[in-house]
Specification:
By secondary structure, the protein is of the alpha/beta class. The chain contains 8 helices and 9 strands. The structure holds NADPH dihydro-nicotinamide-adenine-dinucleotide phosphate and 2-hydroxyethylsulfonic acid.
Length: 258
């Protein structure tokens, strides 16, 4: 019996990595999905694959979470039945660069802050009031180990994920008198397109990040998201920290010798 029958989930950043895996796990459990990202071709293709495999209904669309007007317009234009969102996975995010703060690119900083902090807020500002009105909903923010520890060159990316942690706590406090639950799932190393994006397309440098270690997969993180949203109604998992077994902290990992 699927766990999420008669449930609608919205996953941002579903064109790749953790978001894509969340879409797959939620569809496997019977949820109808709203999936979005800037690369519309990818989310449309994913929608077809998941509909064929799991028989769920999926609406896939382009969305740049950095654009407040676009977020508000696109989400409020959804047909009424799709606005009954039970699960919001605020996943869209990225890192850019691993430079010392005083050498960092302003454009990298803007992109991370606009996506990871402001984008998450813009989507939440539209969707959470619908949840409050329906007295039902789960919000899962994808944070990071980088929201708990600052590492060399992590500066602004870490600040955005510390921000996600603060926003999650703020949501939990402000929604305490409602049935809405808010969780943050905070992974260590997950092998996705994350490092390729961080290093502006340098796949060689990105590949080195995962050398000699078995990182998490997007599916590992998606199962943690599923755990959060399938607890009994009186249980709110505040935070899940999930790490590869051979990664103890942001910069402490055991790598098998070559
Ligand atoms: P990927 O690069 O594989 O996926 C990132 C997703 O975010 C893509 O679908 C991308 O879609 C989307 N995205 C980026 N910018 C925007 C935007 N402006 N508007 C809408 N969607 C956007 O990386 P991950 O799957 O690893 O990253 C997902 C989340 O997990 C991020 O928040 C990241 O910070 C977090 N995380 C990742 C870890 C890791 O080691 N990989 C560890 C801890 C947390 P598109 O480009 O098509 O818009
Ligand atoms: C991604 C994990 O350690 O690169 O959030 O910051 S890390």
């Amino acid at each position: 019996m699927p766990l999420l029958k008669d449930t609608i989930a919205l996953v941002t950043g579903a064109s790749s990595g953790i978001g894509r895996a969340c879409a797959e796990v939620l569809a496997r459990e019977g949820a109808d999905l709203l999936i979005c990202a800037r690369r519309e071709d990818r989310v449309k293709k994913l929608a077809k694959e998941l509909t064929d495999r799991y028989g769920v209904e999926i609406h896939a669309f382009a969305l740049d979470v950095r654009n407040q007007k676009e977020v508000e317009k696109t989400l409020t234009a959804l047909p009424e039945k799709w606005k009954a969102i039970d699960i919001l996975v605020n996943n869209a995010g990225l890192s850019r660069g691993l430079d010392k703060l005083h050498e960092g690119l302003l454009s990298d900083w803007e992109e991370m802050i606009d996506t990871n902090v402001k984008g998450l807020l813009y989507v939440s500002r539209v969707v959470i009031p619908w949840m409050v009105a329906r007295k039902k909903g789960d919000v899962v923010n994808i944070g990071s180990i980088a929201g708990h520890e600052v590492y060399p060159g992590g500066n602004v990316y870490c600040a955005t994920k510390f921000g996600v942690d603060a926003i999650t706590k703020g949501m939990q406090i402000d929604l305490v008198d409602t049935p809405i639950r808010v969780s943050t799932v905070d992974p260590g190393m997950v092998e996705t397109e994350f490092s390729i994006v961080r290093f502006h397309g340098d796949t060689g440098r990105a590949g080195k990040v995962y050398e000699g270690i078995t990182p998490l997969s997007g599916a590992d993180v998606a199962e943690a998201v599923l755990f959060c949203v399938t607890r009994p109604p009186h249980v709110n998992i505040h935070q899940v920290r999930i790490m590869p077994t051979n990664q103890a902290a942001a910069m402490v990992a055991y790598r098998a010798p070559k």
